[in-house]
Amino acid sequence: MAVTADAAPMSEITSPSARSAVWVVGNLTTDLIIHGVEELPSWGQEVAGTSHRAVAAGQAAYLAFGLRRLDLDVRLVGVVGDDSEGDAIHAHLAGAGIDTDGVMRTPLAPTAITVALVRADGERAFASDFACQRMLDAALIESHLPQIARGRALCLVGLFNLPGLSPDDLLPIFARIRACGVPTVLDTGWDPSGWPRATVVATRRLLAQTDIFLPNREEAEALTAISDPQAAAEALAADGARIVCVKCGADGAVGRAAGRTESVDALPVVVHDAVGAGDSFDAGFLHAHLHGLGLRECMEFATATAASYVSRARDRYPTSAEVRAALAGAAGVEAAVDTHPPTGHARGGR
Questions:
Q1: Which of 274, 276, 288, 309 could form a disulfide with 62 if both were Cys (CB 3.0 to 4.6 A apart)?
Q2: Residue 42 burial class via C-beta count within 10 angstroms: exposed 0-12, middle 13-18, buried 19 and up
Q3: Ranges of each domain in the chain
Q4: pTM for the full model?
Q5: What's the CATH superfamily of 10-339?
Q6: For residue 86, what are the contacts with CB-CB under 8 A and spacing of at least 6?
Q7: DSSP 132
């Protein structure tokens, strides 16, 4: 199976800057994406799609590609198999200018794979074999902590695709990193085990050591039993997260920070597919946050980043200039991104 990448070729990306890196820790997979699937099959039956592609993916890769395209220096910690799929993921990451020294190769298990079925409107469903992702554990992260402690941020994504890592494992890691002045960013992804109570309790406990929490609406509801995203964001912020932003797809986003709540609309676009949309949103949000923008401006930049991404079939990850163009009417955001220098260890909402 040939694996491609949605990242821009190296010739279109500037070399990594000398400033400290954003560290991304999480799941790396091959995504087999089948488009044009209008209904999920019943057991024993089959449905047809209209096209397919295989891409270097997983939440960690999608986020890393997005951040790098926004001209942030990215270093990645993850695990791939010692196989052709692992070779392809590693090559695409390195080709996009992402530091892969922290990506472990293992002969003990194959590279993980996810099958994504995508409807014509861009909505999707997933089935995954985590495979070697089980080998990403607290010890692997801890081996990189001296370097992460000098970084600009630690982003842990796809937690529930990492069976060897739990929220309780992350709690002391996040606490240690925050004590060094490095902000912690969390996007757990969906829990395929169905959000048992112990997982919910442990995840909400982890928010006390989380600077930026980026769930989607379904994840926020699973954690809080609250269907209204604004009320869910307020409940999650009360657990201790400095910034909570609930991604609501076509309905935009709702954020909570410093005792106030903001909401923004999604940009109207024709959706090609939404696989990786939330990770692209995360990349835009973190880019804006590290440039010193306030909560609402971060949400607007993130929404425009995700809108640009989902509307494209090729060269999907937008540059900051392309995001600013998509924000056409948001002159205040454009000016802030252009004129505010990146901050080293920004925390909280503004």
A1: 276
A2: exposed
A3: 10-339
A4: 0.87
A5: Ribokinase (3.40.1190.20)
A6: 80, 105, 111
A7: G
User: Does 45 score more than 60 pLDDT?
Assistant: yes
Question: What confidence score (pLDDT) does residue 349 get?
Answer: 30
Terminal alpha carbon distance of the chain: 46
Q: If you average pLDDT over residues 69-80, what whole number do you get? A: 97
What's the half-sphere exposure (Cβ side, CA atoms, 13 Å) at 152?
Answer: 21
Rounded to whole angstroms, what are the CA distances from 193 to 200, 207, 219? 11, 20, 13
Helices 217-224 and 229-238, axial angle in degrees (round to 10): 60
Mean pLDDT value across residues 251-268: 95
User: What CA–CA distance (Å, rounded) separates 240 from 206?
Assistant: 9
> Quick one: tokens of 268?
């109207």
Tell me phi and psi for residue 191, to 5 degrees.
-90, 110
How much is the average pLDDT of 28-41?
92
C-alpha 206: how far from chain center: 18
Contact of 23 with 148, CB cutoff 8 Å: yes
Q: DSSP state, 251?
A: G
The pair of three-digit structure tokens given for residue 156, joined into one six-digit string:
């842990």
